[in-house]
Each structure stands twice: as structure tokens, then as C-alpha cells.
């Protein structure tokens, strides 16, 4: 499920708070995701926040995604660190282990999708090759009776 900014003037992400916590050397973001209640996953939220706030090369940790009852609204809290070592000191290791598992599942799903696509391409190529060979044999078969007919007429 990929959500891009195709809405033109309106963004899906609305910033609630954006604090620089100098004491813990991190940035704390709280955002609302409009219209994504029950559909948003943590890694997708991280990708969206990274693109929205241009946080490439930084460690973005989703701390909490809260869905509001009766509303298609999700509120997310994210910690943004410059250094992964500092993030591992400050944040509970359980959160990192869960993120690692999620990343591993995504990587496995992508590799399975690539293998399926390659297998499909191989099938298409295999299906095309016999068809080309069949066409060539048809052409040869069509030429053979014509040559026999010419030989009969010449005799």
C-alpha cells in the first residue's frame, strides 16, 4: 500500500508538534494522518514522514500510532535521531527488535515477489520459444507440399 502526495495542494500528513529535544539529542514529531485509520502500518508511516520532512540519512523510530475511534484519523509519534547508536541507548530494545522483524518480513516479501516475477518472465519466454519453433516448422511444412506440387507439374 503506497501513498504518495497526489493530492496536489493538500497533504495527508498534518504536523501537530515538532520539538527539538536538545537534552536527548533528538527531534520529536507528532503528526496526524488523515483518512488512513486502520490502513496505516508503521513502516509506511516512517516512509511518509521521511519523505515529508526530508529526513534521509536519519534514524526515524515510530513510537506510537494511535487510531481515533469513529474517525479515519491516525496520530503518530516519531523520534528522529542523527545517530543510531544514541537511539539504541535511549529507546527500548524491544522496539528495535520489532522494527528489525518487520524489515526482514518486507525484504523477504520483496525477494519472493522478484522471484515470482522472474519465474513469470521465464514462462513467457518459454511459451514464446515453442510458438516461434512451431511457426518455423509450419513454414517448412507449407513449403514442402508446394515443392512437391511443382515437381509433379514438371513431370
**Anisotropy-based shape:** extended
Structural class: alpha+beta
Taking all Cα atoms into account, the compactness measure Rg is 29 Å
User: How many DSSP-defined strands?
Assistant: 4
What summary fits the major beta sheet? 4 strands, antiparallel
Overview in brief:
The protein has 155 residues and is α+β, with helices and mostly antiparallel strands. The protein has helices at 42-53, 84-90, 93-154; strands spanning 13-21, 26-34, 59-67, 73-81.
Overview of the molecule:
The chain has about 160 residues and is an alpha+beta fold. It has two domains: about 90 residues, Alpha-Beta Plaits; about 60 residues. The protein has three helices and four strands. A four-stranded antiparallel beta sheet has the order 1-2-4-3. Strand 1 and strand 2 form a beta hairpin. The longest helix is centred in the C-terminal third of the chain and has 62 residues. The protein is extended and about 65 Å long. About 5% of the residues have low confidence.
Summary tags:
alpha+beta; 23% strand; 4-stranded antiparallel β-sheet; 2 domains; Alpha-Beta Plaits
Write the layout of secondary structure elements.
Layout: E1 13-21, E2 26-34, H1 42-53, E3 59-67, E4 73-81, H2 84-90, H3 93-154
Antiparallel strand pairs: 1-2, 2-4, 3-4
